[in-house]
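Chapter summary example: a protein plus flavin-adenine dinucleotide.
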Amino acid sequence: MMDGFGENLIMAFPFQGVDFVGFDSLLNDDERLSRDTARQFIEDNLIPVIEECNREGRFPRELVPQMGQLGFFGANLQGYGCAGMSNEEYGLVMQEFERGDSGVRSFVSVQSALVMYPIHAFGSEEQKDYWLPKMATGEKLGCFGLTEPDFGSNPGGMRTRADKSGDEYVLNGEKMWITSGTIADVSVVWARVYGDPDTKEGQVRGFLVENDRPGFSAYDVHGKWSLRASVTSGLSLQDVRVPAKNLLPKSDGLKSALSCLSQARYGIAWGAVGAAMSCYDTALRYSLLRKQFHDKPIASHQLVQDKLAWMITEISKAQLLVLQVGRLKDQNKAEFQHISMAKRNNVWMALECARLARDVLGANGITDDYPVMRHMMNLESVKTYEGTHDIHTLIIGQSVTGIPAY
Amino acid sequence: MKILVCIKQVPQKDAPLRLNEQGTWIRDDVSWETNEPDAYALEEALRQKEKHGGEVTALTAGPARAAQVLREALAKGADRAIHLEDDRFAQLDAGNTARAMAAAIAGENFDLIVTGLQSDDFGAAQTGVLLAEILGIPHATIIIGIEKAENGLKLKRELEAGHYQYIEMPMPAVLTIQSGINKLRYATLIGIKQAKTKPMRKVAWAEIEGKLSPHMQKIEKLYVPGSQKQTKKIEGPAAQAAKELVEYLKNEARAL
Ligand SMILES: Cc1cc2nc3c(=O)[nH]c(=O)nc-3n(C[C@H](O)[C@H](O)[C@H](O)COP(=O)(O)OP(=O)(O)OC[C@H]3O[C@@H](n4cnc5c(N)ncnc54)[C@H](O)[C@@H]3O)c2cc1C
């Protein structure tokens, strides 16, 4: 506890958003309403428990049914019980979730963009009818298995295989760093297909693997310093037999998996803005109350103002960038390099904001009386997953030069 | 039950307010939200509809931006909305606001009209009461419990110092609702989408103007009170100083 005032005074005020350049005026009523609904939900339900969840390394699963009821899962998908939101509305919801916690936002991203989206885009009618309504309500949870112990940035090297055997596929392999692995009912597993007359030998395709199938096991990664309120797992598949109808029929090579990542990365670019807002908001309030030297708030020192000015400027730029990418996405004009730019820039700026905010809070910055250090540690994962910062540099580089540099 | 909810859009709680140039009201560039007691009135209307059937209509009087509170009401489950849309509606006194609303719902015959007990900005607590007078129907204020009875309503009113009053009254009626009467729901994302397709009737200033009376209220000047922090030191022996302190608290600070 600090001298003079407690964290309660600063954290007691509800979050009211960050808007320096009149960003809100670019939003329509529905966009604002979706954001405000998510903001209220997070303020009422996640903020009161998140520090404890983070300490204990616990995913707040008790919030899942209400998230489902409010329509937060698969919110930008059409039909099958999904809300059918625009990409901006969906993005603003992700922003508010990550203002709460990157781990909880990750959970929603995986459920929505990495599990429901591929079923929606590449699934059969039967798969969609069965899974999507149950996933929209949160009755069933999913995970996405692309990364392997030896293949992260280069998933094209994957070794997990699916051998056709009669009207079944037999899956073998290891997946690693899989969000929600041990709480999922179903995994979208990407594997190379062999012995299937309908598929080019060795081509990557997606499968729906129910997590209770014999030979399937999932275990949690322990000792994480990041995304502690989200479950991260390894998946092991040993002769797991799934019926042929569990293949996602329209999945066609690694590019199908990467298109899911585009969906998720877009949401992350919004989410990062939320984490940055939380850090900035905390630092601003703190700096106005905390006094050092001549009984003056630290906000009156130029070096502190420099940090605040940097943060609000970068947040404003990041908002505009991701809003434009969302507008492009609504018109089906968003390309992967646009999404890479938004993910790369926004996660980087959020991490920088977290570091600057941590400075502004001094010693208090390292405690979980404030959300800043939690965001900072979370964002280290966000910087790595869904294409590392540097991989997105290479994607943008290739886009402007035409030369791949991986 | 055919229920009307009157909702006002007010500046967000805790929003930093700045005065306009004339010093007659606040600047418009703040965040806006549904007046809190009105949100509870809406929730209560939706619950009554869910119990007894019927429909809920949401009404607001205010500029274009005020449509947002109607969108929210529709997203939460109201069936239709009425927007008295004009900047001038926001400047009416409580009497004229009530007259405008009464004119806009002429011929609608609602069984029940609910509204918050007061607005978070002006805090006059008059609009609901005056609306009842103009419509010539009974009203009750500060309601924290509503039950439908044989031929009317059973109500619980909040009085002062933890006392309650239980009353019965006939319908149609106007009730002004106290915050906390129920637990507010969130708008669902699907509800937000569906709200787009629900009917919203706009009422123009010209349709209403003739029904208004001369203004009874005008804000001449608003100002931010200057800070008046003063330190007074009472010196001398303790007994003497204590006496002086009590005198001061009694007569000057009027704290005792
Ligand atoms: C908390 C968490 C949750 C995750 N959830 C999921 C999930 O749900 N599903 C899933 O499939 N995966 C998930 N991942 C995995 C994540 O996508 C990978 O960690 C990521 O793709 C990076 O792979 P890697 O960790 O193997 O790092 P590597 O690929 O080994 O990269 C290490 C470093 O080398 C750099 N590098 C690699 N190649 C190049 C190159 N050609 N040029 C320059 N630099 C290069 C990288 O930028 C990075 O800095 C998750 C990861 C984390 C941390």
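Key point: Residues 147 and 237 of chain A are 14 Å apart (CA to CA).
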